[in-house]
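User: Earlier you gave me the apo prediction for this protein. Now I'd like the version with calcium ion bound, so I can compare the two side by side. Same sequence as before, with the ligand SMILES added.
Assistant: Got it. Here's the input I'm using:
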Amino acid sequence: HPPEGKHDTRSQVFADLSPEEYTRVRDYLLSVEELDLTSDALAKPSQNFLFLIDLSLPKKQHALSYLDADGAKPVREATAVVFGGARGLVSEYAVGPLPHPTYHRDVTVERYGTEIPITARTVTLGEYVLLFKCIEDQVFSKLGLLLKESFDVDKDKQLNAFEQMPRGVKSGDRLTWVSYFRSMSGMYIHPVGLEVLIDHKSLNASLWTVERLLYNGQYFDSAEELRTRYEAGDIRKIVYVETSDYGSLKPRRRALQVGPQQHYAEGRRFSVHSNQVLYLDWSFAFGLSAVTGMRVFDVRFKGERIAYELSVQEAMSVYGSVTPGLALTKFLDSSIGVGRFAHELTRGVDCPYTATYVTTHRYIDVAAPTRFLNSICVFEHNMGQPLRRHFSDFFSNSYGGLVNSALVFRTITAIGNYDYMWDFIFYQNGAVEAKVHATGYMSTSYLVDGNEKYGHQVAPKVLGNIHTHFVNFKVDLDVLGVKNVFQTKDMAYVNVSMPWNPEHHAMIPQLVEQQLNTEQEAALRYGTKTPRYLHIASQELNRWGHQRSYRLQVTTFAGDPLPESQPEERSMSWARYKVAITRHKDREQTSSSLYSQNNIWSPAVDFSKYIQDNESIDNEDLVAWVTTGFLHIPHAEDVPNTVTVGNGGGVILRPHNYFDEDPSVHSPDAVYIQPG
Amino acid sequence: HPPEGKHDTRSQVFADLSPEEYTRVRDYLLSVEELDLTSDALAKPSQNFLFLIDLSLPKKQHALSYLDADGAKPVREATAVVFGGARGLVSEYAVGPLPHPTYHRDVTVERYGTEIPITARTVTLGEYVLLFKCIEDQVFSKLGLLLKESFDVDKDKQLNAFEQMPRGVKSGDRLTWVSYFRSMSGMYIHPVGLEVLIDHKSLNASLWTVERLLYNGQYFDSAEELRTRYEAGDIRKIVYVETSDYGSLKPRRRALQVGPQQHYAEGRRFSVHSNQVLYLDWSFAFGLSAVTGMRVFDVRFKGERIAYELSVQEAMSVYGSVTPGLALTKFLDSSIGVGRFAHELTRGVDCPYTATYVTTHRYIDVAAPTRFLNSICVFEHNMGQPLRRHFSDFFSNSYGGLVNSALVFRTITAIGNYDYMWDFIFYQNGAVEAKVHATGYMSTSYLVDGNEKYGHQVAPKVLGNIHTHFVNFKVDLDVLGVKNVFQTKDMAYVNVSMPWNPEHHAMIPQLVEQQLNTEQEAALRYGTKTPRYLHIASQELNRWGHQRSYRLQVTTFAGDPLPESQPEERSMSWARYKVAITRHKDREQTSSSLYSQNNIWSPAVDFSKYIQDNESIDNEDLVAWVTTGFLHIPHAEDVPNTVTVGNGGGVILRPHNYFDEDPSVHSPDAVYIQPG
Ligand SMILES: [Ca+2]
Ligand SMILES: [Ca+2]
Ligand SMILES: [Ca+2]
Ligand SMILES: [Ca+2]
Ligand SMILES: [Cu+2]
Ligand SMILES: [Cu+2]
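And here is the structure of the complex with calcium ion:
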């Protein structure tokens, strides 16, 4: 039984670029002489490096006209990001038309309202090579004895680096604390107690300088000073001690019999073709931006569009430490690339054996497009519980129920230490869930005096540092078209007299409904009491006279967002709000940007500006920006890896008076039992 | 491969009574002449009716001595509840020793500190028969024409009844509004607009009186008044209109191919014997109280007890309506019996086909013990995601992960309209989750003027009434023995100067730890800011010097608890607190009671009294009482049934510095991949 729907090639307006398209865009741009580009993966900061090629999303209005009204197919364009070392600016170009580009247009100012300084760029592989060489020359080559005695480092055994971000304390800085870790499995939980501050702002690497060093909790202005004092013996030394391989993920026990597995006894009930998925009553297009990650478009249930876009926007963490490697650290992962690290998924662990795996291609910080085999998985999963059921033995005897089988669309992005598991789940009752879980290695620091108040010790001389996880999803629901309102519902106890006994008063819960009409009213801050039910609603009514709506139900265990007094906060201002509603704009495509991490004080995108103009959201195309996350106080059980259980959050988009009854009554899986 | 552990018959101190034991307790009590009991299932209120026989839990100290210290096996006793109509009191007896009882002891005052008035008793089947007959005689027999014209009721077609609770407005009342529904599938969502108030306080049913009637939103003092005015035509009439069978759960579509199913390719990895479950590193005993429902005891991981008891305590709902049938309604399900309604589970819907099903027996409101076939299910489930994983391609290339297969222990209790799904889930990282989801039919009322502010219309003339779901779990963690403390952890931003750059200040998150030392400090109210991490901790330290603890992570979408100004609130005072910690007492076995619903104003158990004495909880045996739930604003998609997705809550008990590392590293399911 194939799915009843048919695949539709129009989904491809949302498709990521093919390897051929990436190559053609690259070759076209390289052919434009005045751009003077290089695509050398080890390009120097002073060169104009073609860093990224990614799909440029069509304007929503054009896409809708094409999808819904037989409008023209939107011109397909790529976004190309050039780190223009020679010009001192980062530039974004729209390149088109695909698949055979003939033009390019600098869209930087159009998109961000400002130029992007070159210091805002992501650190490339080319720059990393120079950075490590600089530290080798200016530090490691001068500290042979210390490195050997403290860390057992020699020619055959090196330390591994992990960096602090942001890189400095003010716009224009490119001043990075690099922390060192043992070269072992899970290096992130093997800090050695050595950190180096390097100023790599200059586009000429020969001008880079080591500014400070931290060794065993003690600061030094130069490698020479550290060496001299180390050799003089007037500092507290670290004496190398072998540690157990506690970060290893190797099995420590023989396998027993295999655990439970799912199977499709009668075949798949979903179909993946090109970038479109069909599943029972559902259909959607999908893509995977190297920058922001997984996203779906044109999500339809029973043929009706529920959401235009549902996408990952950003994963952010704020750390605490006394050591510089994590003290000021605020990771904004989309500046490195969330989708960039969607690697191959392991069958039977990351997704079931029977999942359908999709191979993706990306072009980021490379010389040619890269293939990521089986980096998306799609599967139907039996959740092991009923979606609904009722057993009756009062007055009548019967049983009716429906097992909860749902479609899961997943990527897992291993962004350095952490692995984020991203799930969009499509249920048979018309609900969609977006979830994120964190696993992988936490970031740690070497345990020195004063660091106890920033976390818990988790291994010998290792502190697991306190941090927050904040994740932002873009939820562009279109409830019966783009013109929607934002409604809230909640309860309130009201003292009322009983109609049949008017002297008797009692506090009775009543329904409290409100429509919030401006962006600022609809920006629901963490830490404030917000209504329990949040709805994107149409003005159209269901059969019972209620506005048809989808409800956003957010599950979050988030910590406190960074205080707004901090200059870095502007780059993460989306995290203030559990839910914020904006009027849709093509120019407000993302809540964060590729340039936020390295120019965190003056970001290309400051989400709070989307709502600063306080536009009306009454009968407009609305976008909900949902922030979830959790406070992570590390503990011994985070070694070797943080587990997914309890470490996540998400949002369920649920029909609420959208239908006239639960659409799962039409599921082919319904079961009914009656006596006789 | 059988589980590595061995079953232990000592678990049976927690086992529910066998059919033979129930029968022997009944027969012993019936043989005691001075008790003058009847076990007739249709006993009259004026008789002394043996309502309930249930396991009497051993004193914890005795059980621990038996389990841990080769102490004597605790004497096995039953609790018998007698509705002593002849005496005017409810009595609880301890009956023992099982399996051959020879003594009984009235323990009512010992357990509740007070006598239990007969009006506090649950309405029995015998009383229902009398109630319906009374209404037939005093109402239905007098309203033939109205019933036919308004509801198409005649000899062959009756209405079905559903009652409001509590029964009245003050202690001693037994004054019940009975609402009427069409006799159709899912009667609960087919209200007809007729409600009857009956005073059935007298133990002599011939003295019961109908006090008021509600018909189409209009009140009448008697059936005669209603008939006279109906026939005179001076009231707003309801004219019968056939309605569609929208409450039906019958499939509306042919089955397609079967959905995904789980299987154990190499057999079960868990074992259920008697009332004990073994699963990988886990073991626990289980039981199912007719009153409170599902519970597990002596929960051990790797042989160490984590929890002495984890149990369902109460499911409560507060409704809002303008109609009396739901206006004052506050359901306290354990007064009817939560476990009582743990019926047979449907394979493939309620639990997977491959689950192990356990048959249970109960004695409640019957003449002989009842068998409930396959009413508990136990299964290992592949959650379709990794429990942990990391992919590395920086510095080294490797992948390690572990699929999240966990053991689910489940009952589903269909308490009238609602079906609550109760899950205890045992994970390979040492975490246990207690979850509840609601499904089944919501309670509704006939749509009359003024009712719109109490919910949403969901069907023709049907209002889905706003209500809260609150559920209470008892979590008696014993972390390395019974002497524990209650700790909280959270984050706070602190303005600190950077050690390497003292002029630079920044707000850095720090860890804030606190020990709460008294019951009142540790009573964490809903609606207040509570610390994000809650721990039951030992004074013993793990290898890294931190107190070994289990964390309680609560997921809840609860509405507002009933204001304390309301006299009914004392029966549900546990719902004030998201988490409350008490010192363990055998006398404080439950947070609610069988007698709370019908004497809601003066309940046998008022949880808030457990903490009123504000005892020290520093190094004591602690019990956490966890309240979760959700606000339910009904919507069209609640027809026919509320879905489980998004409609639930729970608590995860997670090791936090309990171990020295994540114990799942020892799982036999671990997978590791490295190049060549
Ligand atoms: Ca705006
Ligand atoms: Ca929209
Ligand atoms: Ca107390
Ligand atoms: Ca305890
Ligand atoms: Cu974390
Ligand atoms: Cu409900």
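For your comparison, keep in mind: The longest strand of chain A covers residues 370-392.
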